Amino acid sequence: MVKATNERELVLEGLLETIENKVFSHIAIQQLLSRHQDLDKRGRAFVSHVIIGTLEHLMELDYIINQFSSIQVKRMKPVIRNILRSGVYQLKYMENIPPSAVCNEAVKLASKRGFKNLKGFVNGNLRNIVRNLEHVSYPTGQLSYLEVRYSVPSWILNFWLQEYSFSNVERMVQSFHEKRPLTIRTNLSKIQPADLKNNLEAQGIKVKTHPYLPYAFKIHGIDYLSGIEDFQKGNFYVQDVSSMLVAELANPNKDSVVLDLCAAPGGKTLHLADKMLCVSEYKELRKNEEYKSTDSGVVFACDLTDKKVALIQENIDRADFRNVKAIKKDATILEEEFLGKADIVIADVPCSGLGILGKKPDLRYNSSLEQMGKLVKLQRKILTNACAYVKSQGTLMFSTCTINPKENQENLRWLLEHFPQFKLVSVPEELNKNLGEKIANEFYGMGIDDSLSDPAKGGTLQLLPGINDSDGFFIAKLKRMI
Fold first, then answer.
1. Are 237 and 184 within 8 A, CB to CB?
2. Backbone Cα Rg of the chain
3. I need a labelling partner for 218 at 20 to 30 A (CA). Which of 72, 133, 393, 400 fits?
4. 166 — alpha (psi -120 to 50), left (phi > 0) or beta?
5. In a 10 Å sphere around its CB, with 0-12 CB exposed, 13-18 middle and 19+ buried, how is residue 5 labelled?
6. Is the pLDDT of residue 16 over 80?
7. What's the rounded Cα separation, in Å, for the pair 156 and 23?
8. pLDDT digits (tens, 9 = 90+) for 178-193
9. Percentage of residues in the chain with pLDDT exceeding 90?
10. What pTM was estimated for this model as a whole?
11. How far apart (Å, rounded) are the C-alpha atoms in residues 181 and 207?
12. What pLDDT does 28 receive?
């Protein structure tokens, strides 16, 4: 008889990998579940939910445990502290699980992992927390409150509180804990948005048009993405609307030569390729059914490793786009074959990812000021090469998925000072009316600044989670004048 997989044991294994061994959560969970194919759909969902939830609330969970434990979390054995963390997460955020079950399973797991002598410690702490969970008091200082309540390190919060009000920073960090729908982009060279919407709704999927772009949808009710026929056919691509804005603002022609320097997994690459295949359709949402361009340019999708290139190619193959070439290139190494050849260069540079902490919660614990300094140097090396690839009158799109002036505005200021042949293009003129109003009217210090007196602000776009209907994202469009 095959022994059933213990779900909480898998949760513990996943937390040890992500927290103690610093493995990215999405990789740890993927590897974990692939090793346990016997686990049913409900079990797989439970394991993923508890691992991600524990990571999202990690600092808050430690704060709660420390209020009731005689031994502080950082001094506990890794196995014990992660059993307690996942237990407290279930007690606080999973009301459908009886507290007695949480406590009993935690005790069993501690014993099974060789800590029989600590069964009483685990049981006593969890049961004490059960009795007093509703009476936990949080810090009263603004910074410490945000840090504990939303599990975001103070050094990150300090960046944001220097730029934005407390209430808006709280809206941002609060959004990291909110369940958001999946956002998808219609491949307009293959299907009309209305037809895609009808197809998905016929399968019981809830579909809502995104307010920023008419070919983007927010969808609910998907069990298995790869099982959707329209996904298999390449009729849509999963992509946040903030990322879609890069290609939207780049606005390629059908014969453009585009170079995407850090392309994996390929969302912007495929968006650009799709726009080039059906320029008229993107501008008028396919009002002219007779038009179908066959004379398109090419997008070179580059990335550093074979694995990333393979991922790009997989997405290219599903979409069946012939105007994209996935190639292995190091963006920090200057490639003479591309010098002055590209109409559009996409430099979506590696960054700290502070705008997507809701999707990748472990980033907040694995980043540091020192690492950020190294990232800025890497980003400037890539931007230097990117500038060399843009032809005269061509376009450079600089973007990140972070909210950090050092990686965004200060990098842009550096670029404009060192490469005076580039001028910032005013973003508002190229955004649709709905998007422009939503961002410009929200609050000070973010979004669109139409004044070019400060070159690091004018013409840039900084989207904020919880404020905008998107991830946190920075975009700047530059034109090479000579």
1. yes
2. 24
3. 400
4. alpha
5. middle
6. yes
7. 21
8. 999 999 999 999 999 9
9. 83
10. 0.90
11. 10
12. 94
Q: 152 near 242, Cβ under 8 Å?
A: no
Stretch (H or E) spanning 364: helix 363-366
Q: What is the DSSP letter of 16?
A: I
HSE-CB at 20 with a 13 A cutoff on CA atoms is 16
Over the range 272-282, which residues count as b (16 or more CB within 10 Å of their CB) and which as e? bbbbbbbbbbb
Section 258-278 average pLDDT: 96
C-alpha to C-alpha distance for 43 and 32, rounded to whole angstroms: 12
Determine contact, residues 304/350, Cβ cutoff 8 Å: no
Q: What 3-state class would DSSP assign to 258? A: strand
Predicted pLDDT at 109: 97
Q: Which pLDDT score is estimated for 461?
A: 87
Instruction: Find the length of the chain.
Output: 482
Q: Torsion over CA of 94, 100, 105 and 106, rounded to 10 degrees?
A: 80
Rounded Cα gap, residues 427 and 416, in angstroms: 16
The Cα-based distances of 310 to 261, 265, 316 in angstroms read 15, 9, 10
Of 475, 332, 478, 331, the residue nearest 408 (C-alpha): 475
pLDDT tens for residues 209-252?
999 999 999 999 887 898 899 999 999 999 999 999 999 999 99
Tell me the C-alpha distance between 455 and 409, whole Å: 9
CA distance 54 to 15: 8
Structural domains for the chain: 7-135 (1.10.940.10), 142-175 (no CATH), 241-480 (3.40.50.150)
DSSP 66-90: HHH-SS-GGGS-HHHHHHHHHHHHH
Q: How far apart are CA 312 and CA 392, in angstroms?
A: 29
Helices H / strands E in the chain, number of each: 20, 12
Instruction: Report d(CA 81, CA 75) in Å as an integer.
Output: 9
